[in-house]
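Module 6 notes. Inverse folding takes a fixed backbone as the condition and produces residue identities as the prediction. Think of it as a translation problem where the source language is geometry and the target language is the twenty amino acids. Below is one complete input and output pair. Work through it position by position during the lab.
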């Protein structure tokens, strides 16, 4: 189906009010029209609730994440410096022993 053909056939855009379905109508569509079992619907609702909870946790801790990133970066830089100093000291001591 070409885009121009779709655009000419599709009709007017619906507004938000026209797209909303109440709980019972949506439940009827899922169970009777689309053929989902009550268990499948319940599982999907549980999954949605879990994702919503995870997003809320993310939103809650988002401001703290910046501080955590800075701390992690500082820790990596500190370790890199310490290791670099140990390597330099080791090569210096080996050079003095060889001389």
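Target side of the pair, the amino acids:
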């Amino acid at each position: 189906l070409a885009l121009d053909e779709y655009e000419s056939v599709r009709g007017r855009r619906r507004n938000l009010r026209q797209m909303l379905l109440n709980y019972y109508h949506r439940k009827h569509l899922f169970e009777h029209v689309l053929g989902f079992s009550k268990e499948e619907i319940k599982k999907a609702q549980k999954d949605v609730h879990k994702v919503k909870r995870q997003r809320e946790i993310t939103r809650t801790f988002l401001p703290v994440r910046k501080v955590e990133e800075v701390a992690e970066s500082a820790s990596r830089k500190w370790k890199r410096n310490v290791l670099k100093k140990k390597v330099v000291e080791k090569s210096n001591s080996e050079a003095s022993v060889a001389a």
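Reference fact for the lab report: Residues 38-98 form the longest helix (61 residues).
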